[in-house]
Design a protein that fits this description.
Distance between the termini: 29 Å
Radius of gyration: 15 Å
Shape: globular
Helix content: 40-55%
Strand content: 15-25%
Number of domains: 2
Strand order of the largest sheet: 1-2
Largest sheet: 2 strands, parallel
Number of strands: 4
Number of helices: 3
Structural class: alpha+beta
């Protein structure tokens, strides 16, 4: 999700970095704030394979740390058991 940025800059950045996930362009900030509850960035949502929200984090995270990897693995394991 991109909030209040120039759409051309966002599109160029997405292309340069090779992002494959859809990027929501929210020039006004209304979608982010009112619909998703994102009032600051970065905000991360964890969505399971069925599309359900299972977690939300506000602020930067180091996803390379062992704790983060354990968290992701535990979500994948729970998802397999369903």
């Amino acid at each position: 999700m991109d909030i209040r940025e120039n759409p051309d800059l966002v599109k160029r950045t997405v292309q340069e970095r090779g992002y494959v996930a859809p990027v929501l362009l929210d020039q006004s900030g209304d979608v982010a704030g009112k619909d998703w509850g994102v009032w600051g960035t970065p905000t991360a949502y964890v969505i399971d394979r069925q599309g359900r929200l299972v977690g939300m984090m506000i602020g930067p995270r180091d996803w390379s740390k062992p704790e983060a990897r354990t968290f992701v693995r535990s979500l994948l394991e729970v998802d397999r058991q369903r």
